[in-house]
Amino acid sequence: MSKISVIGAGGRVGSGCVRNIAEILGKKGNENTKNTLAMIDIPQALNLMKGMAMDIKDAVLNDVEIFASDNRADIAKSDIVVITAGKPRGPGMTREQLLSENAVIIKGIAEDIAKFSPDSKVIVVSNPLDVMSYVTYTTMHKISSKVGREIVGMGGVLDSMRYRKFIAEAFNCGIKDVSGAIVLGIHGEGMVPIESTVRLKRLKIKEEDKEKLREAVKKTISAGKTIADFGASAYFAPGAAVARMVNAILEDTKEILPCSVIPNGKYEIDDELFIGLPVRLGKNGIEEIVELKISWEEKSKIKTAAECLTNNLTHIFI
Ligand SMILES: NC(=O)c1ccc[n+]([C@@H]2O[C@H](COP(=O)([O-])OP(=O)(O)OC[C@H]3O[C@@H](n4cnc5c(N)ncnc54)[C@H](O)[C@@H]3O)[C@@H](O)[C@H]2O)c1
Fold it and tell me: 84 CB less than 6 Å from ligand 1?
């Protein structure tokens, strides 16, 4: 029996996560071993979530129990808590204002996870992702001595999915032909799509084709903005990315996924912060940070991203 809670589930990304996770939980359980999904949000979103829960259940048509609540105590005994709550950037609002307002929301949520479900693994989705993952960790660590390996941010999985798609488009080949498309660093403009690991049908990219790869890199970095420019926002793909991480933890797959984590000296980053690095994700959360064979230049870009994140942490007023 597994229980997953999504906080912010009345929103676009949260409900997208619930839909995808419901599919995974359905495959694990049956009518006798019920798996549970808790949709948690503020009171104003409660009725909306009740309707969503019914619709999602109809869509997945399996034995998972989905319920809506505005009481965070209902996350108790979750295996995994996913945080998608937060405010979008309003008109005239600076990035720093958004950062400090969301930090206050995430801090409150992290306090409640520490109180009601301290043993859960936590997947942070709210933006700015790496900073919100850090806020979740520092808050929970103070209250429940939560260890860093149990808290991961989802950003790199989504960015890597986009990178893989753009590479396939650039080279006019199938998505399955592309491997090694991984995005590290900051989830945002400071992301570092890695070029040296990319393979097409298991072969390295030829020198004369590198320009095509760089086009895919540029499109990956601006993918979120491109979607926003159409008046849309990303929630289908973030939902799928979170579900992949949930599955890795529940099924202990130990697959390598790019997640926002505390580097602990890996990639020559000693600062206490969260940044996207390749990790083996399994039942304990981060089983290992994997040191990939990437170029010196790529390593140095990741270090620069870490310096930028350290600077961002000075804008949090909590
Ligand atoms: N990491 C990623 O790859 C990624 C991708 C897309 C979006 N995001 C981020 O995910 C977050 C959610 O985006 P969205 O499009 O779903 O926004 P949204 O506005 O649709 O949903 C946010 C939800 O959070 C809820 N909420 C606000 N304060 C809360 C609180 N204190 N407790 C519980 N719930 C609360 C709101 O009621 C709302 O339902 C944003 O921060 C967004 O930037 C991250």
Answer: yes
Token pair listed for 38: 């808790």
Q: Residue 44 CA: which ligand 1 atom is closest?
A: 37
Q: Which of 41, 71, 113 to mutate to test the pocket of ligand 1 (most atoms within 8 A of CB)?
A: 41
Span from the CA of 124 to the centroid of ligand 1 (angstroms): 11
13 CA → ligand 1 middle, Å: 6
Residue with the nearest Cα to atom 20 of ligand 1? 11
Domains of the chain, residue spans: 3-153, 155-315
CB 156 within 8 A of CB 242: no
pLDDT of residue 244: 98
Return the pLDDT at 108.
98
Give the residue whose CA is nearest to atom 21 of ligand 1.
11
Residue 98 has a pLDDT of 81
**CA atoms of 138 and 136, how far apart (whole Å):** 6
Residue 12: the pLDDT is: 96
For the stretch 66-78, pLDDT in tens is: 999 999 999 999 9
Give start and end residues of each alpha helix (H) in the chain. Answer: 12-28, 46-60, 95-116, 129-144, 156-170, 210-221, 223-229, 236-250, 296-312
Burial class for 232, CB neighbours closer than 10 Å (0-12, 13-18, 19+):
exposed
At the topology level, CATH places domain 3-153 in Rossmann fold (3.40.50)
Q: Return the CATH class of domain 155-315.
A: alpha beta
Q: Using the atom order of ligand 1, give the atom closest to the CA of residue 85.
A: 24
Instruction: Please indicate whether residue 53, judged by its CB atom, sits closer than 6 Å to ligand 1.
Output: no
Counting as low any pLDDT under 50, the low residues of the chain are none
User: What's the pLDDT at 315?
Assistant: 67
What pTM was computed for the model?
Answer: 0.97
